[in-house]
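Posting for a labmate who doesn't have an account.
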Amino acid sequence: MPRLETLVVFEDRPDSFWLRLLRPGFRHCFCLLRQPSGWLLLDSRSRGFEARQLPSCGVDSLVRAFSELGARVIGMARGPIPDRRLPPAPFTCVELVKRAIGVTHPAILSPFQLYRALSSDPRRLLIAGPSSVTG
């Protein structure tokens, strides 16, 4: 059985005016890659790039935390990185995630398009949506 090694998180974080033109709930995405010592967070924003090592914790805890913050999460088995060169593309959050998880389709430009593509990807192992937090 494939092991869940990648989490792709979709959220509604309008860092700039232009992101407000994107579909609500799908204005930003980032990913976490399972490493032997924890998780590697990769996040490209309009103000810079972040790569941070996070401590080891369970997938359920991460998915629950992001869902409680209103995010959607897709968990995947890690696929092979393509052997061929990828064409140049703007360095967006979508492009970062695509290259980190091995998605090569050039027409995927927005977080929602990426979400739809990953929802039907055979490597997908889970999908979690926003949850209501009461209390």
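Reply:
Got it, the structure tokens are right above this. Helices lie at 59-68, 93-101, 111-119.
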